[in-house]
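Table 4 source record.
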Amino acid sequence: MSIDLHSIARRAMDRYGFHHQFPRRVEQELRGLDAERVLRSHRGERSDLRSLLWSSIDNADSLDLDQIEYAEYGPNQEIRVKVAIADVDLFVHKGSEADLYAEHNATSVYTGIETFPMLPPKFSTDLTSLKPGEDRAAIVIEFAVLKNGDVRRGDIYRALVCNKAKLVYEEAGAWLEDRGPAPAAFAGIPGLETQVRLQDEASGRLKTFRMERGALELESLEVKPVMMNEVVTALVLPSEDRAHYLIENFMIAANGTVMGFLEKAKVPVIQRIVRIPKNWPGIVDLAAEFGTKLPPEPDSRALSLFLFKRKAADPVRFPDLSLAIVKLLGPGEYMMLEPGKPPVGHFGLAVSDYTHSTAPNRRYVDVIIQRLLKAVLDGKPCPYDRRELIEHSAWCTDRDKASKKVERFMQKVAAAVLMTGHIGEAFDGIVTGASEKGVYVRLLAPPVEGRVVRGGDRMAVGQKVHVRLTDLDPYQGHIDFERVNPSRR
């Protein structure tokens, strides 16, 4: 059976209110762009940091590179870090056709089948992508990582940069953890290996400091389809390693530095928040099922310690526990913060002031924050009034949730396509949900989730079971199982 996955993905984009194709007016605007002239006109106002050993770490297939990193030792055993962010606003001006398209979608949507970029590829994968070997305009965020892992926030300024190497998460992570050879990208670039080791040292300090203060280390169950000749050949679960943590820890420190910079400038800003969970009693009850007593009031440190112990005790079931905790914590949101008002904070990251600024090719909030930064740097009025920031906060929150729905639906579609031809076969799985809405099981291999339509009574979350695939519908992303006796498989 031939299934047009791209058509399904585009219909899903339509269903959730996204544009999936750039209109002609955006293409016309691009044809009139003189990129060299734009770069020449702004080159004199930037620090020239092209000689530094910048590098990026991203997915193998990522072309929209937003962030590169550099580190050096400072006094008192501190490590000074520079994070360069693509200057998207240099080409994508507020109110332009490309900007209006990006404002509507508010995020790139990654379905695994097809990527729907927020910005035209001419920008996101070319002019505003920090590609290796290319001189690019950037906003540099500096911070110092102290010996104990605390952060001293530093300067923010414009610069001209050049990425020396694009590293891939899996390869860099295996090397950092002594599970694999040095990435091939190091070849011919003296000093880069030592440079990335120093970045990893800084990341380790940051992670230890955050974990001690209650940051939550959770794992995702969002599978990624492996495609070959437009056919789904496998599903893989993302794995967290030291390369992922390096980028995450630098991102968190950079975003906190940006937030502090804008708060000090007394301009309204959009903050990224995860509120103190209202359903803390639900988290307490869940922990009690594992023999752990959490405090009656929300306590991120106690929750972090519980998660750390559960991951060590049962790594197979930990992703499902992570998902349950995420649901009880509640979703992240964007919210306008008035100057001088205390920030709401991000419960999951254990930070008090946080925003999104490090992915302007992929998220519209980051473009807004970049414009706020540049207005402060230039001594100009804030380019957004409070009403606009409130409206953008609400819309970007809505689009963030909608994009996750598209991506989850396409994961189910890809899973159903992969399981085509396996009806009647039995598999080992783990119960991931059991309520009046139904019972759901995730297979151990491949990592496919479906509903138990027969034999699901008396199943409990976390229980290992044997199920048989009975039916599926790739167009709706439906997968049905029935419970079977292991002896009758």
